[in-house]
Amino acid sequence: MTGFRRALVGLLLGALLALPGAPLRAAPVPKDVLVVGQIAEPASLDPAVSTATNDFRILVNLYEGLVRYRPGTLDVEPALAERWTVSDDGLTYRFTLRPGVTFHDGTPCDSLAVKFNFDRMLDRTHPAADTGPFPLAFFFAAIDRVEAPDPLTVRITLKDPFAPFLSNLAYPTGLIVSPTAVMTEGRGFGRRPVGTGPFRFVEWQGSRRLTIERNPDYWGVPAKLRAVIFRPVSDPNTRAMEMLAGGLDVMVEVPADALSQFRDGFRVHEQAGPHLWFLILNTRHGPLRDRRVRQAVNYAIDKRAIADSILQGTAIPAKGPTAPAFAWATDPAAMGYPYDPDKARALLREAGAEGATLTFSVAEGGSGMLDPVAMGTAIQANLAAVGLSVTIETYEWNSFLARVNGGLGEAVDMAEMAWMTNDPDTLPYLTLRSGALPEAGGFNSGYYANPELDRLLEQARRSGDRAERGRLYRQAERIIVEDAPWAFVAHWKQNAVTTAAVRGFALEPSFFLLLDRVSKD
C-alpha cells in the first residue's frame, strides 16, 4: 500500500466510529468520502466470478466493459469501445477500443486484454481457466471466437445470431479485468481487483469495510469523490439505525417499515426496475401438475395486499413474468391473475384438488427477496382461505438456493424466488425453457416444458429487430401466464436513502450504483 493510501485509510479510520462493535455515534466523515451501507459483504470482486447484485454495486465503479448501460436506461452505449459494427448476418461484432486506456496497475487495456477476458471464461484450456468458477459464463455461450487483429480492434464471432449479446456485454460478467493481475494473483484476484474504472481498489477488511479511491489516471471525467467506503451491515434494522445516527451517507435496500423514518432530513430514492418475485410451482410432481391448480394458486394470492401492506408500497403487483421496465416487450393491457378466491375455489373443484396439501419452501432472506418470510406466511393464509393446506419450510439463503436450484423434486410443491435481469430473454430462457432443466445445468426448478414457448424464445433471441423481439416476447408471456408454471407476485421498486448532503445520486434500472458523478456538500 502506498503512503498516500495509508494516509487515506488512516483518515477514514479516524472518521468512522460507527463500525461493528462500536457505538452508533459517528464522527463527521470528510466531504469527499462517501460511506455506503450494503446488505452484505461481497463474495468476490472478480466480475467473472461474482453473481450477486450486492457485489455488482461495487464492481461497476472499479471496472468497465466494452459497452455499458446508458444512465437511467437499459440501453447500451460505448464504454471501453468507442464504437462497434455488426455484420449483416448478426454473427460478427467489430469493436474499436479507446486508445491510451490503462488498467489500475498501469498495463494497457488493449485488444489482447479483452480477448484474455472472454477466453478465460470460455476456454477450459486457458492459462487462467482455474481462477474460476465462472457461473455466469453462459451469458457468452454464443461466442465462437474472439480475435485481436490489432491493438485497438476486437472481433467477436458468434455461433448463431444472439440479440441480447450487447446487453450481456454491459452486464457485470462482461467487465474487463487486468490479465496481468489475474495471472499474478490467481484465485486471489477477487480480493485484489484491478480494472480500468473511475475508482481503484484500496483495502478490504473482511466483515468491516471495503474502500475504493478515485483513479487519478482515469481516461474519462475524474470521479468527484476522493473515496468510497462500502460497509456490510446485514441486519436491515441496524442499517437503518446507523443511517439515522450519521454513520452512513447512503443506505441501499431500506426495509419497507423503516422508510417513513427518512422522510425528513434525508432523500428517499425509489425506482421500479427489472425485478420479479414469484413462486416456482412444481409441474412434474404433486397437485400442481394440473394447470387448473396452478391457476387457482395465482387467483388465490392477494398480490395488492402484499405490495401495499407487507411491502408498504415498495413493490407493485405482478401480472406476468416480464417486468414493466421492459415496456417494449410487455403487453400493457395484460390482466394476469387478479385476486379472485371464488375463481380459485371453482378451479380447485374442477380439478378435484379441494383440500390438497402443499409443501412450500421459504427463504429467510436474500438479495431481491424483499420480505420473504412475511410474504410466504401471507400466501399460506391466502391459499388456506381457498382450501389448500400449506406447510412452510424455511431455510437460510444459501441453503435455500442449493435446495431449489437443484430442482423441487417430489418433496416440494412450490418455492419462493426472485430475479433481477438485464433483458427480457434472460429469465424465461434460463428458468422456463425445456432445455434449462436442473439436470442440464439450468434453473427450471419446476420442470416446466412447452415446445411452443421454446420456439418463441429461440426465435426472439435470434432476431435483430427489437419490435419483432417485443412481439415474440408478448406471445411468450401469454403462454406463460396461461400455463402458470409460476405464481406471479410482485415487482420490487428498489430504494435507497441518502443524506441531504449527497448530490448527484440516482438509482439505475440495472440495480447498479454509479458513484463517479456523486458528491457531498
Written account of the structure:
- Helices cover 28% and strands 22% of the residues.
- It is built from 14 helices and 20 strands.
- The chain has helices at residues 3-15, 53-62, 111-122, 165-170, 179-185, 236-245, 291-300, 303-310, 341-351, 372-385, 397-405, 426-431, 451-462, 466-483, and strands spanning 33-38, 67-69, 76-78, 81-86, 92-97, 143-150, 153-158, 199-205, 209-214, 227-232, 250-252, 266-272, 275-281, 315-317, 357-363, 389-395, 414-420, 486-499, 502-503, 519-520.
- Strands 1, 8, 9, 10, 11, 12, 13, 14, 15, 16, 17 and 18 form a twelve-stranded mixed β-sheet that branches. A four-stranded antiparallel β-sheet has the order 4-5-7-6, covered by helices on one side.
- A hairpin with a 2-residue loop joins strand 6 (143-150) and strand 7.
- Helix 7 packs antiparallel against helix 9.
- The model is unreliable at 13-25 (pLDDT under 50).
Gross morphology is globular
Mean pLDDT: 92
Strand content: 15-25%
- The residue fraction in helices comes out at 25-40%
Radius of gyration, CA atoms, in whole angstroms: 24 Å
Helix and strand content put the structural class at alpha+beta
Count, helices:
14
Q: Sketch the major β-sheet.
A: 12 strands, mixed
How many angstroms does the end-to-end distance come to? 29 Å
Unreliable runs: 13-25
Number of strands: 20
